[in-house]
Amino acid sequence: MRRVERALLLIFVVGVVAVGAGCVHNAFTPSTTMRFAPRPDGCYVDLIFLGEPPGPYVVIGRVSTESTAQGLFAIGENNEAAMERLKEEACRAGAHGLLQADTQAEGSWTKNGYSKSTTGAAVAFVYVDPYGRPLPPPRGPRVVIHPGAQPVAPIARPTPAPIVPPPPPPFPEPPPPAAMAAPSAPPAAAAAPSAQPSTP
Questions:
Q1: pLDDT in the model for residue 13
Q2: Distances (CA, A) of 67 to 5, 20, 29, 35, 45
Q3: What is the Cα–Cα distance from 188 to 168, expressed in whole angstroms?
Q4: For 5-21, what is each residue's pLDDT tens digit?
Q5: How many whole angstroms separate alpha carbon 195 and alpha carbon 147?
Q6: Radius of gyration of the chain (CA)
Q7: Residues 72-103 pLDDT 10s
Q8: Alpha helices for 73-154 (secondary structure H)
Q9: What's the CA angle centered on 158, arms 157 and 160, to 5 degrees?
Q10: How do the domains of the chain map onto residue ranges?
């Protein structure tokens, strides 16, 4: 009897946890006949939120995720969790990156308590060479600057200071004018020799 009660209690607890935890649905919708081997869990994928990938690529499909959680399980439901599920689905599809990735989270109160739902979707792609052959997946993480994704401000270069020649040396000041001396008297005329009577 006790075993039956314990089994029923266990079933009840599992049911409550399952209802409280909600449900998660991830999907991949292929858009090409190309098929790729699944990549390992937690693999790296390029996330392109704006602009185009840095190299030639081929779109292989679309990944999506939907989830609903109630009570305490709703705490972990957010945009980051939805993005992680999109990346996991991309790895399973063998994708190298995601384009136009978008996620949304919304919470609400119902008669059963607080509930939160998240949704997300993105375009999955793989890099290819100029002949359309798939390339090895990126190993990232890496920083990718996409041309045209955002305006790049020109690098401000300091303006060199103009070369100003040194000022010329100052001209020497003229000496002060000497004090003018009083005019000297003209020299006296030589006295005429006096006539001496000649003696016989």
A1: 36
A2: 33, 12, 18, 27, 22
A3: 55
A4: 554 344 433 344 444 45
A5: 127
A6: 49
A7: 767 778 899 999 999 999 999 999 999 999 99
A8: 79-93
A9: 125
A10: 34-127
Nearest C-alpha neighbor of 21 from the set 65, 72, 89, 64:
72
Beta bridge partners of 23: 68
Q: Are 38 and 92 in contact (CB under 8 A)?
A: yes
Q: Round to whole Å and give the CA distance between 84 and 81.
A: 5
Q: In which residue are the tokens 């980051």 written?
A: 80
Tokens of 87: 């990346």
With H, G, I as helix, E, B as strand and everything else as coil, classify residue 80: helix
Distances (CA, A) of 128 to 8, 55, 56, 69, 106: 56, 8, 6, 39, 37
The CATH superfamily holding the domain 34-127 is: Hypothetical protein apc22750. Chain B (3.30.110.70)
